Amino acid sequence: MDSVAQRLSAVGAGAALELRGVTRLFGALAALTDVTITVRPGERRAVLGSNGAGKTTLFNCITGDFPPSSGTIRFFGEDVTHFPPYERIRRGLRRTYQISALFPGLTVQDNVYLACRGVSRGRFSFLRPGQNDALMHAADNLVQAVHLAGVKDQPVAELAHGQQRQLEIALALAGAPRFVLFDEPAAGLSPTERQELVEILTSLPAHIGYIIIEHDMDVALRVVESVTMMHNGRIFKEGLPQEIESDPEVQELYLGGGHE
Amino acid sequence: MSVTHDTRVQVRPATAQRPALRGWPEINNPAAWIVASILLIMPLIANGFFLIEIFATTLILGTMALSLMLLAGYAGMVSLMQLTIAGFAAYMVAVFGVSGNANISLGWPWWLAVPMALALATIFGTLGGALAVRTEGIYTIMITLAIGAAFYYFTNQNWAIFNGHTGINTVATPHFWGVDWRADIPFYYIVLAVAALCYFAVEYVSRAPFGLTLQGVRDNPRRMAALGFNVNAHRVAAYAVASFIAALAGVLQVWNYRQISPGSVSVGACIDVLIIAVVGGITRPIGPYIGALIFVLLRTFALDFLVKIGLDGNRFRLLIGLGFLAIVFWSSDGVIGLWQRWRQSQRPAANRAGGGGRGHG
Q1: Is A109 a domain residue?
Q2: Angle between helices B286-308 and B316-330 (to 10 degrees)
Q3: Mean of the per-residue pLDDT values for chain B?
Q4: Which residues of chain B are within 8 Å of residue A119 when distances are taken between CB atoms?
Q5: Which residues form the ABC transporter domain (chain A) (predicted)?
Q6: Is B225 within 8 Å of A84 when comparing Cβ atoms?
Q7: Which chain A residues contact residue B218 at CB under 8 A?
Q8: Residue of B239, B229, B217 whose CA lies nearest to B127
Q9: How far apart are CA A235 and CA A217, in angstroms?
Q10: Of B209, B224, B230, the CB nearest to A125
Q11: Torsion of CA A175, B227, B199, B272, to 10 degrees
């Protein structure tokens, strides 16, 4: 009952994702310190920062892979701070991993089918999907959307790196995502593959917001409307892409810092 | 260059077969039909000794190892308590049913005692699993081994229910429709039916959401959670299903030997189930049955063989141990892995002879 009331109040709350004072400690090391971020539904934002700035830890706190040490996280108004990851995913949150986290023993189709199954009922079903199974069709469509239809019956272990990155994105788009966290989706991609990635991101339905961690400014600044700059586990600067790009402090810290 | 090409040729046939897995691969496989036919007409070929001591025993042990294959092969959890669950079910059949120990057995008819035994053993295994899933890897092995060892010592020392080290003897077997179902031929068919049911159930479920999620959990539990799965719930469910399969095998085992004692649930016997599964191969449900056949043949005939070459016959475990070493050394996926590699090494040669070998790529 409580969560129904919370979800009703969420309608008026406005923010897709709201972090307040999120801190994450690893022993004595603070990977995140007092991070406060608000992202609107449908907003597309880049998180920049050098290695160790706390970008991936931020994602891990949002999805619950590592819960925050303190602070609160609200997802469409609902306090999900203490939810296990699967409860957050079932509410429409999605993520990809910097190093592909796939199921190498299964085929491409089965990987995507699992992603579709995870956010729907019948996760424990003993019945094989039939010819007209709706989730199988959904999986087929997703496989096509990321250009993997030609290899859908191949085990994932046999895929090329670029194909694995595309599958990584497909897994995050299963079901009805409301907000997606992309962790360096372009890592290790060729220029052509980067172009395809940009097309996939820009062609996402407008109501799906996302945060993208991306070192490649060509990719990052073409697919987002706002930028958050992190440094040493703190929010360093927030603004429009062009503001951040031309900010002397940011250039000092990151862009001009010899980072590729 | 040639090396890369060869690996690709090896990989392709396996890939090409993938779509068939969605249905029933056995239907298109003549070897499977031959094996099924031989198993069905076995009573015409084999005498009572072979029928029960070799084939029924193989199928019972194979079904126990199948429950481990489900856990280890699909869900990535090595459980050493599968024999303990089977033994628990066997004890429950003896305790609730009819036996020579009237002071212990409650005397229920078999059709009440067996469902009770299956239910209790499944609960027992599920609770053990709920403990074990809190750990990973070697700690799972340790917890399940501890449960197995604890059960062994408990049965040894508890006289009120388990009748201590003497166990429960002359356990009654079912008689109905005018048939003694423990007579060699009816019992063989019961065992064959249960084993076939379990085998096909595991094969079927491996392509259903239940089995696919377990394989996902095996490959990457963290990603499974990030796809909306409650990973531990799926692991416990796997233990529940595996426990039921092991319990079925336990019921057959107590009917086979008509007695159950702590010796049948010893730690050594727990490890035998692991050896059977690993020797056969845990990547596919057929592996445990192949492993069980090798194990039973060695156990039965190694004695004569060893005596013949002038060694102590009781050293048959030496042969099993050496075989186990050889398997894990040369083929980590067991005999079925050896078989698959042999088939693949034959295939390019056959294709080359036919002249169409490159058509695959």
Answers
A1: yes
A2: 130
A3: 83
A4: 227-228
A5: 17-257
A6: yes
A7: 105
A8: B239
A9: 19
A10: B209
A11: 180
pLDDT of residue A6: 56
For an interface test with A, give the residue of B223, B224, B239, B245 to mutate (most A CBs within 10 A): B223
The tokens for A35 are 């991070």
Domain hosting A244: range is 1-92+178-259
Is residue A142 in some structural domain?
A: yes
DSSP B80-95: S-HHHHHHHHHHHHHH
- The answer to whether position B2 is within a domain reads no
pLDDT in tens, A117-161: 988 888 898 888 877 788 888 888 899 888 888 898 999 999 998
Q: What is the pLDDT of residues A74-88, one digit of tens each?
A: 999 899 999 999 999
Helical (H) or strand (E) element with A57: helix A55-63
Expressed as residue numbers, the domain containing B70 is 8-355
A89 with B226: Cβ contact below 8 A: yes
ipTM of the complex: 0.86
How far does the CA of residue B30 sit from the closest CA of chain A (Å)?
A: 24
In CATH, what number is assigned to the domain containing residue B168? 1.10.3470
B19 in contact with A at a CB cutoff of 8 Å? yes
> Which two structure tokens, joined as six digits, stand for B279?
């020797």
| B226/A117 touch (CB, cutoff 8 Å), yes or no | no
pLDDT reading at B20 higher than 80: no
Nearest to B163 by CA among B86, B250, B104, B102: B104
Evaluate whether residue B238 is within a structural domain.
yes
Q: How many domains does chain B have?
A: 1
Tally the C-alpha atoms within 13 A of residue B56's C-alpha that lie toward its C-beta.
27
